[in-house]
Amino acid sequence: MGNDLHNPPRSGSGVCKLGPAPPRYGEIDRTRMGQTPVGNRSSGRLRVFIAFLRELRLPLRTDRILALSTVWIVRTDNFAKRSAFRGEKNPTRTALDHGSGRGIRTGTWNIRGAVPPGVNSNPIQEQELELAALTAEVTEGTEPTCYKEATQFECWRQAMREEYHSLKRNETWQLCTYKTTEALRAKPIGCKWVYKVKRNPDGSHRYKARLVIKGYEQTNFGETFAPVAKLTSFRLLVAFAAEKDWKIDHLDVVAAFLNPVVDEDIYMELPEGADWLESDKTELSSTICKLKKALYGLKTAPRLWYRDIDTYLKLIGFIQSNADPNLYLWNDCRLLLYVDDILLAYPRSSNISHIKQLLVMKYQMTDLGTARQFLGIEISQSYNEISINQSQYIRTVLRRFNMEDCNSVTMPLERGHMLHACDPKSVVEPAKVRLYQSILGSLMYIMLATRPDLAYTISVLGRHSVCPTTNHLTAAKRALRYLKGTSTLRLRYASEYCHDMHGFSDSDWGGDLQDRKSTGGYVFLYSGAAISWKSKKQTGVSLSTLEAEYVASSNAAKEAIWLRRLYAEITGRDTDRPTTIYLDNTGSIKNTKNQQINERTKHIDIRYHFVRHSVETGAIEVRHVPTAEMTADIMTKALPKEAHQRHVTAMGCRD
């Protein structure tokens, strides 16, 4: 095994004699700069390579480190496989071409240069410093980063062939000459190939090549907004299907963005490989493409696609929801649309083949049958029970940040943490800031989809995403360690539980020791598990626990009003009965029922009295619950282990 980068070989054990310890990998020993004849250009290229190593975030190890001022010869043995870093005198690409780290094996980065005094010069020729180019070995199982790499393998050539012919059949463009664009003074937009290995729910994979237009080169375009389904709508639909023992099917629209017609003149350059992909090769050198239909990467493509399918769904009889524009209703059928993914929920006794036939008549679709995976969320359906989790995605996240072998913990955030804003001088270096933000983004999607127990942790960590310190990065990695031990937790919806939708609202008081603002939160449950949750620091300073919890209950009331509309449309039931929200502060409960003005409440902003109005109109009912049974307590603070696990179970998170 090689030696760790932070523990280089002693004098005599390797090829070099080192004095002081070398810098951490990715850092440059600037105190030694200028002592050896290192050119500015080579030094800059070295920094590119070092930045690349840090971007990989791999467990790099070394058995050979040569101190060459700012230059280090690094031998990596990330995996026991053959070399992929090969030094060449004629660089063909830079290290940043492989910043994603995919397809990288192991090997040696060779650097030649002048030898400082005291360093064994046997393996080094004293000549002008030259930084070799990084060449990475790409195999069929990896994703190519450019067209040139993809053409080396028949599987990717076939994927490009299928995509190109699909575009031709779809009449996505028509060929014209450059003279046309010159007359119209239109500048053609470039395009590129993007490659992805698609993982199927059964573990198999397929190769997908997508031709995308370089939308960032567009200068003239209209509206680009296109709505997508809310995850809360997805969970409420799943909970209702579990209660009624409905079935959920999954449909995937093939090349969704290629269906709508473009309503403006857009010209595109010929894609790479047109010389062997195009059957008619006449005048290809002076030909460009005029788009007739939308293409992936086009700024207006999402809006054009949504407008197209929305019009068709209404045409065949679906009614659009008022609570979520991506939810459609048809008798006993519920359709949820997320870009090109469609979920159909319906009674098991119903036959919806005619609905699928209507959709297939308009769009090319893949019927995936019973829904097993949706937006990276795993769905398990059985009799009167549906559960959702993200165990596979969690494993991918742990592997991405090299935490798959870490020790697990039982709490996502230490109790009594001191994660507050600090002096900007103590902020970690930019590379670690990006690492922190990447971890936080991955954690946030897990929390938003299936893990309400991470809401407070993400709320705290997200406040420092711009200027994190070492403590914040450690806390983010602790959340990953928590996921390592709880990756099998799933939200379990079942008909055996209470069918009435209800919620919990709570708040701490002055929990942020820096600005003394409180953190409020809520969680709503239906069919035995959480369907909506939130943890957020309040915008103002509360002068009492009554005020803090009253403000939190107002935010919960706003969510409850929207959930009532969504619930009525999905279930088809009347919402004459009020939705219950449980509080554990008697003063706040009295304040929602009485318009009393006293020293503790006269200054509260008018918008926070929305909960009182909701109670008066009969939409909301506020009840008291003991603090020990306050499920929303997990949204406001880091709890002891027993209380944390009790509330996690109460939210329906079970193994």
List the helices and strands and how they pair.
Elements: E1 3-4, H1 40-56, E2 61-62, E3 74-76, E4 107-109, E5 111-112, E6 130-131, H2 147-150, H3 154-169, E7 173-177, H4 178-184, E8 191-199, E9 205-213, H5 231-244, E10 246-253, E11 267-268, H6 274-277, E12 287-291, H7 301-315, E13 319-320, E14 327-330, E15 333-338, E16 341-347, H8 353-362, E17 365-370, E18 373-374, E19 377-382, E20 385-389, H9 391-400, H10 430-449, H11 455-462, H12 470-485, E21 490-494, E22 502-507, E23 519-526, E24 529-537, H13 545-571, E25 579-583, H14 586-593, H15 610-616, E26 620-624, H16 641-650, E27 653-654
Parallel strand pairs: 22-25, 25-26
Antiparallel strand pairs: 1-2, 3-4, 5-6, 7-12, 8-9, 10-16, 10-17, 11-12, 13-14, 14-15, 15-16, 18-19, 19-20, 20-21, 21-27, 22-23, 23-24
Helix pairs in contact: 5-13, 10-11, 10-12, 13-14, 13-15
Short description:
The chain is an alpha+beta fold and 655 residues long. The chain has 16 helices and 27 strands.
